[in-house]
Amino acid sequence: MKNFNYNSSIAKKVASLDAIMNKSEQIKLIQQIINSGILGQELLLNFLVTRCIVQKKKVKFLDGLIFEFLYFNTSDYIKTKLNYHFSFGLIELKSYLKLNYQPLQDLLISHNFQEADKLTQDYLCLLAGLDNKSNRNWLYFTDIFSFPSQDLYILDKLWRIYSRNKFGFSIQRKIWLSVNKDWEKLWNCIGWTKNGKSSRYPSEFLWNISAPDGHLPLCNQLRGVQVISALFNHHTWSQDEVF
């Protein structure tokens, strides 16, 4: 009877995750479920499978959070089952330009944020029609206008889902809007400047989940703010589902 009540308690905790909107509370509860042992971990995995595969719900912050905790904090047995159901990750990658974003998804799943940032810059160049044969590997603000919304949305969603909704272009844009489009305030908020000086790449940037909201991905500011301004003003962000 005691085991039944204990198991029932864990199941109720898992079921309650959908109703909790506060990020900190979700993280705390998921950690409790993970720490409860193999039963809680299996229930959490089944919850994720039901949402993403059976019900085919759009992948949200909660799904990314559960996936992260199962990926980093469970036994090999659970990780094997996680890989069976989500061998390519959580996000379906449908590129308008037929680009393969799986390498980026793999890096973000493993929280290899520095390499993911480098690869993201490569993808942005590809969206602008720049490849290895091009004479430049940087962007002009006019390049941004031609970015397909579908691809820019995928890049942003990959960053958001695998970072607890901390990183991504849309996250940076929301912070930018919250400081009335003041660039200096934005740089300070997201940790791109320290004491009024630009952070040095790569040593003064943070490449882990403890970084400030909006810290990643990076954008080269050597040529001013025109590129990132064009990015923040791209019509992709008018889509409600981005947020």
Automatic annotation (TrEMBL):
Keywords: Chloroplast, Plastid. Residues 22-86 form the GUN4 N-terminal ARM-like repeat domain. It holds the Pfam family GUN4. InterPro entries: ARM-type_fold (IPR016024), GUN4-like (IPR008629), GUN4-like_sf (IPR037215), GUN4_N (IPR032192). One of its GO terms (molecular function) is tetrapyrrole binding. CDD domains: GUN4 (cd16383). Residues 98-234 form the GUN4-like domain. PANTHER family: TETRAPYRROLE-BINDING PROTEIN, CHLOROPLASTIC (PTHR34800). This is GUN4-like domain-containing protein. The gene is ycf53.
